[in-house]
Amino acid sequence: MIWLAATLAMTAVQDGPVPYTAASPTSQERYSGPPVRPYEPSWDTPQAEGDAYMVTRRALETPVVLQAYDGTYEATPTDAEVVYQQGVTSAAMRANALMGPLDGLWRVAASDGTPVLELLMMDRGDGALVEGAWREPAAPEAALTSRRLGALSLVVRSGQTLVIDVDDPDGPARLELERDGAGWRGTLERNGAATAVVMAPLG
User: What pLDDT, on the 0 to 100 scale, is given for residue 120?
Assistant: First the structure.
């Protein structure tokens, strides 16, 4: 749960200390290792012919800004570096293939298309409880640091229905949704009012 809230907090500022409430259901689960471990190369992996520990890089002729970095001014990767990158990519792909259908970033929008919430959920796909966090979509003229965020206190999926409780300091909110193609459709109940919404994956 911590990494989800921290990811969204990268673009928001917490107004003050967050009081502790009842423990999250996921915090009471016994820890178990990931089904797919990160790639762990062996330190005694032999170097391929032509590999060297010291790689000479050609001098840069002009400054390169970070945003334009694409590796073109790097030295050609060694065979060991290629194997390592392939291992990392393969492990990530196998881990992602095991994740459940709710895993990832979602946007909740009103019926007129106006963004209402952005949700980041982790669905391990093994029947475990789904974890997540929410934040307000960025207003066109608002600073990113003004965005409000919080945790999803409960995510319950049963067949074609989905219920998400949003832990909002201004008052709890609940999403009650039904499967609609690749997304979900239903209502957002907040402060005694119900709004028709659609939840669709982002990216």
Answer: 93
> In angstroms, rounded to a whole number, what is the distance separating the alpha carbons of residues 30 and 128?
11
Q: What is the C-alpha separation between 87 and 72, in angstroms, rounded?
A: 22
Residue type, 158: S
Task: Write the single-letter amino acid at 73.
Answer: Y
Alpha-carbon torsion, ordered 14, 20, 24, 26, to 10 deg: 70
Distance CA 189, CA 165 (A): 10
Host H or E run for residue 201 = strand 193-201
Q: What is the pLDDT of residues 108-124, one digit of tens each?
A: 999 899 999 999 999 88
pLDDT tens digits, one per residue of 163-176: 999 888 778 889 99
Q: Which residues pair with 195 in a beta bridge?
A: 188
Region 178-189: mean pLDDT is 93
CA distance 23 to 20: 8
Q: Which of 134, 176, 165 is nearest to 22 (CA)?
A: 165
State yes or no: pLDDT of 52 exceeds 70. Answer: no
